[in-house]
Structure prediction request, 406 residues.
Amino acid sequence: MSGPLSHLKVLDLSRILAGPWASQVLADFGAEVIKIERPGKGDDTRHWGPPYLQDAEGNDTADAAYYLSANRGKKSITVDITKPEGQALIKELVQQCDVLLENYKVGGLAKYGLDYPSIRAINPRIIYCSITGFGQTGPYAQRAGYDAMIQGMGGLMSITGVPEGQPGAGPQKVGVAVADLMTGMYAVSGILAAAVHREQTGEGQHIDLALLDTQVAWLANQAQNYLVSGTSPERQGTAHPNIVPYQAVPASDGYFMLAVGNDTQFQKFCQIAGLDEVAQDPAYATNQGRVKARATLVPLVEATTATKPAAWWLEKLSDAHVPCGPINDLAQVFADPQVQARGMVVDQQHPRAGTVRTVKNPLVFSQSPLAYEQGPPVLGEHTAEVLRKLDKDAEEIERLRAAGVI
Prediction:
């Protein structure tokens, strides 16, 4: 393995998205990730389709695109952790691992002897990361948590969607499972911080990470807006609560994003748009003034941008270094020359489909480049390989398979 984390070994007992997203990032960084799945079924997301990956004959394989998005770079082994022999296998693997990642309900692994105190007794240096909906403590600790409900509970939906009083008004969730994805990213940073702590002290530790906590934490400036003002932010559609004009604006043939971030950029925009009077109006001279005058300024901007095609605006504004961009669908995203130049799609080998295309990790390391050597594994693809490293011979592996342990 290559990459900056090639010295780490991760035992991944998580499924769906938050945990698998974290372990995929660790795998991208070079860690050896062993994904534990249920025999015969595997991760739930293998079945969350269509679409499904197709084989060379054009037939659907057993793996949905959803699963492929979050499981690149891992080794899949099937173990039934409800069986004592399955629990014993996990405990043998734990002795060789640096990190254990799980997203069972609070206390869900204790009955199998796979909770943190039990695992710590086997490997005191283990970094044990638990991802739950609401954390290990608090009145909601025993509740299940899913992304969509967390977006609602955590305030994100209250600031996402068409503003009140406009057609289509109402709360909306984001188009991808951002609460899960951000929790996965916080898990990565937490695991790496714990790894540094272990290098300094020799101590492993338990990481308690909750979807709701994560959602509240990354409300960022909107949360701080509330804490400073005492007023809950409202939905602004594509607009920004603290910057104007910063939103989707109409062109004569569609929409584009205009992102004026400072007063100089606003002056340049006005020059290109022929809005000399607006540029000279003291009410619009500063961003603070423009935020206060949003209701009068935005209609002036929109009336002007609607007179010319989006391509005209994008060319003129980009040449003047006024931030702007198209509103692309995904076909346009992956056809974009910048996305292609950055190599954001990687082709990987797949035992059933021949190759599978996945989205590259956005990080580029100068001294420890990422290799993407292992595509998303088929269910149980590496069971025999991993068990052989536990000194299980072919006869023992077959016995465990016949008993339904693997």
